[in-house]
Design brief:
By secondary structure, this protein is of the alpha/beta class. 28% of the residues lie in helices and 14% in strands. The chain contains 4 helices and 4 strands. The longest helix is centred in the N-terminal third of the chain and has 19 residues.
Length: 182
């Protein structure tokens, strides 16, 4: 399992980053690693060899949303004949440290057949310092001809005064309230 954390005492199988070491610049090591694992995830999903599933839901938390972003971009690149357009059902971004500009990625959600849920908090102090335009601070764009056809749901947790570490406690509620655990 690959994950990013802001807890300096956590371990993961591959890489572990704390907030001080995350660099969001285009050619940073953080972004290169996310691109690599996003592409790897895309190939694993479309191969249907490892997992024998009908559809899959992708859930990204914090920097893990980067992996989903690059996975979606890679699937769309490989999906010229729309043969992979039925694999990804729902995508949930929780406190995402990423930017998704529809103008830059007009077809990023093309391979998703279900909901696209963005859970954000405008009061996330950690994210405000890190990336003011991240989807973890802002709703996903819904008033655009490229996204109107998708089921985009923005969930604002600003009233709960959430920070990056607090999202982990909200995940079961988010999943249950949006019919993922029924």
């Amino acid at each position: 399992m690959f994950f990013f954390t802001n807890n300096e005492y956590s371990n993961s199988d591959f890489y572990c980053y704390d907030w001080q070491s995350i660099n969001y610049e285009e050619n940073s090591q953080t972004k290169k690693v996310a691109k690599f694992y996003g592409k790897l995830l895309a190939y694993i999903i479309i191969s249907r060899e490892i997992f024998t599933f009908q559809t899959i839901n992708l859930i990204g938390y914090s920097m893990g949303c980067n992996i989903i972003k690059y996975c979606l971009l890679e699937i769309n690149k490989l999906n010229e004949k729309s043969i992979y357009s039925d694999i990804i059902n729902n995508v949930i971004f929780i406190g995402g440290c990423i930017n998704i500009k529809i103008a830059k990625y007009p077809n990023i959600f093309e391979s998703i057949v279900g909901k696209i849920i963005n859970v954000f908090s405008k009061t996330d102090k950690d994210l405000i310092e890190y990336n003011k335009t991240a989807i973890g601070l802002n709703p996903l764009e819904t008033k655009n001809e490229n996204v109107e056809k998708y089921q985009i749901i923005n969930i604002d947790l600003s009233i709960k005064n959430i920070k990056q570490n607090d999202y982990i406690y909200q995940i079961p509620n988010i999943l249950f309230e949006n019919s993922f655990l029924h």
